[in-house]
Amino acid sequence: MVTASYAPDFERCRLLCETADRHVAGMAHHYILVEGRDVALFRRLETPRRTVVDERDILPRWLRPFDDPLSGFRRRIWLSLRTQPLRGWHVQQLRRIAIARHVAEEVLVFCDSDVAFLRPFDLSSFRRDGRTRLFRRDHDLFNEGLDGHVQQRIWSVNAAKLLGLASLEGVGHDYITTLIAWDRETVLAMCDHIERVNRRHWVAAVGAARKFSECMIYGRYVDEVIGGEGHFHDAEEFCNVLWYGKPMSDDEFRAFVAGMAPGQVAVGMQSFIGTDVARLRKLVLES
């Protein structure tokens, strides 16, 4: 399992680790990917089966973080001569791709640090007959009026450009959700393909556009470059996520949990919503 995180999400990540250790089976190892200055903080979460990975060990040295004066030095910005200026959420995506070259596990299961597991879950669900599960909502990006789809269509088009696809729009599949799996060898082949198409390092190619999604890149690579080889498709979501909104009351959170679909095993609440972590921990542990 792989989690990209940063210091403001530390307590959420701690809760993820605690609930994963309680409920998740089949996890050979858990990698937490962070910026160099956050490594010491996250080391507190390390166990024999959990390792904190410094981004400096997996990303090119020419991509470097700085305090951003335009934010009053409250936020970080990653700069290089080879990419656009990148924010933390951009670099978290790059880390998820980059880790494939530095681990031995065949399948990488990505789980955000604002997720908490509430029910037993076996990561073997992501493999079937030697193939890896690729989350996909068929043709979903062409559904008009759905929030976020304008942005996601841009990410899909930019993925097509990056991969050298003839059709930029494609057929409009959506590959984005929480709790997804990638095949490690496929990620490595994808990076090699991006470098051949763009004739530069894959990080430089991806970072040349600030509007990108690692899920879109991987999904369109699997479906349109290698014809789905080694994968099977599934649209079931394992995590019930609150993407937008305001902090829930205790009763609203309990209703949110009660509304989980039968196959859902975890909840996710985007950290920018501002839910108090101590209260969230109490509600999660009582659920």
* Rg, Cα atoms, Å: 18 Å
Query: Low-confidence stretches at least 5 residues in length (pLDDT < 50)?
Result: none
The order of strands across the largest sheet is 1-3-4
Beta-strand residue fraction: 15-25%
Q: Structural class, from secondary structure content?
A: alpha/beta
Molecular shape: globular
Largest sheet: 3 strands, parallel
Number of helices: 9
* Separation, N- and C-terminal Cα atoms: 23 Å
Q: Write down how many β-strands occur, each being a DSSP E stretch of 2 or more residues.
A: 15
Average predicted confidence as pLDDT: 93
**Portion of residues within helices:** 25-40%
User: What is the N-to-C succession of helices and strands?
Assistant: EHEEHEEEHEEEEEHEHHHEEHEH
What does this structure look like?
By secondary structure, the chain is an alpha/beta fold. 33% of the residues lie in helices and 19% in strands. Helix 4 (149-163) crosses helix 7. The longest helix is centred in the middle third of the chain and has 15 residues, at 149-163.
